[in-house]
Design goal:
Length: 446
């Protein structure tokens, strides 16, 4: 946006320090919508360049659940060669900077835990595999004292309805670690989780053992899941992910953090409720385990692995719920207790129920510099995965409709936008440029 002198310019400069102080003061207020001129992405997380929002980003966001909406995402295992170039660029920058360890990629015999090559200890600091219960600094395994972090994996699914009914009845909010391909297959259940206020987090696109994936495959699994959540939730960018099977190591954790700004969440107790349908465990066995955990010490807080994959797994939680309450645990969505200074589950919104991520909630400047990477020329769609938001006027459920313009469901990755985020501009143009831009925004709002 070019700067135009205005008679009120000097007045705005007088108040400019107040604007900056307001920005700083409001960065971590996560329980209400922030004043539009004071909210912005934090400058130091890498996701800022990959997901942005402004009123005219050149991207069309189809109604959730329509064939046109579905056509923008991989039908199953994502092909890394088809992912947006900006994601690959971000990965390459992190690798070149030495921020992604060059650890060996293990193999997984059948459906077993990954095995690293001979001579490579999964418990070593260089690898530190969560599958082998090695804890990486910054990963989350435990909750705050006295808290029960409510969360469920593998949704959305048809069986999720029973869980959402119970949570609504008990006025509870949960973190749903969602599989991207399940969002694609079950948009109605996704929208129900969204509109009922549950917190959305990433559980990869196809649920693989993540340590067995190449760097590019890790990026594709995470990126497309973030993309579909972001596009379908009014523009929200998740902060958290949980690796399938709890399988992460220093390499995978670093990629999630450096490319997408994601924090890894594991667990400190496992119900193994996923195996209820195969006879691997029973409701009685799970209830006995829950009784032991819930009547035990409240330090650390409980982060229990639970699933919404079957009626039985949902019933296991319902059975344990009275014990949670009777033993004095404070129930709270896991994403809201993962960080004691910032309770928001998203990078760019206070919560799920605060309305859409509006254009006026971000300081947006024009940027005519072309992006450094593009998708291959055979990708013809004009949508923008770097923008990846719903329209500025859409709330969390505003895109639930039937589209007469629905296109073929053939997967057609969109082109990159030629604009960078306002955050990138502010961080590179210097405080002088930022001051002029903010001044103009203030004048324009008078």
């Amino acid at each position: 946006m070019p700067f135009h002198p205005h008679p009120l310019m000097m007045i705005s400069f007088v108040f400019l320090p107040l604007i900056f102080s307001s920005v700083i003061a409001h960065e971590h207020q996560a329980n209400r919508r922030l004043p539009s001129a004071t909210w912005h992405h934090s400058r130091d997380h890498s996701v800022s360049d990959l997901f942005r929002r402004d009123a005219n980003d050149g991207t069309h966001y189809p109604a959730v659940g329509t064939p046109e909406w579905a056509s923008k995402y991989p039908p199953w295992t994502p092909d890394p060669s088809q992912m947006p170039g900006a994601w690959r660029d971000r990965l390459n920058v992190a690798v070149a900077a030495g921020k992604v360890p060059n650890t060996p990629i293990p193999y997984s015999p059948g459906d077993q835990n990954p095995t690293y090559p001979e001579g490579h200890d999964p418990m070593s600091p260089e690898i530190c595999s969560a599958t082998y219960k090695c804890r990486i600094d910054g990963d989350i395994w435990d909750g705050p004292s006295g808290f029960f972090g409510t969360s469920f994996d593998d949704g959305p699914l048809p069986t999720s309805g029973k869980l959402y009914d119970f949570l609504k009845e008990k006025n509870e909010t949960a973190t749903n670690f969602m599989i991207g391909s399940n969002v694609l297959e079950n948009p109605d259940m996704f929208l129900r989780a969204l509109t009922e206020g549950h917190d959305l987090a990433v559980h990869t696109w196809t649920h693989p053992y993540m340590t067995t994936q190449t760097n590019e495959q890790v990026v594709a699994e995470l990126g497309w899941t973030m993309q579909i959540i972001h596009d379908s939730s009014g523009g929200r960018v998740p902060k958290y992910w949980r690796p399938p099977y709890g399988d992460s190591d220093t390499r995978v954790t670093a990629i999630a953090r450096e490319v997408f700004g994601l924090t890894t969440i594991i667990w400190n107790q496992d119900t193994e409720d996923w195996s209820l349908i195969s006879g691997g465990t029973t409701l009685d066995v799970i209830q006995n385990s829950m009784t032991q955990w819930l009547t035990g010490p409240k330090e650390p807080g409980l982060v229990i692995l639970e699933h919404e994959t079957s009626d039985l797994s949902v019933q296991a939680f319902i059975n344990a719920y009275p014990l949670i309450k009777s033993n004095g645990w404070t129930t709270k969505s896991l994403a809201q207790i993962a960080n004691d200074t910032d309770t928001s589950p998203y990078r760019n919104a206070p919560s799920t129920q605060d309305g859409p991520v509006l254009a006026e909630d971000i300081i947006v400047l024009d940027d005519t510099k072309p992006h450094s990477s593009t998708l291959s020329s055979n990708n013809s769609s004009t949508s923008s995965p770097t923008s990846a938001t719903s329209s500025a006027n859409a709330g969390p459920s505003a895109h639930v409709s039937t589209s007469s313009q629905a296109q073929s469901s053939q997967y057609n990755p969109p082109q990159l936008s030629q604009s960078n985020s306002a955050l990138s501009i502010l961080s590179t143009a210097g405080w002088t440029s930022a001051a002029f831009a903010l001044t103009h925004l203030l004048i324009s709002s008078v």
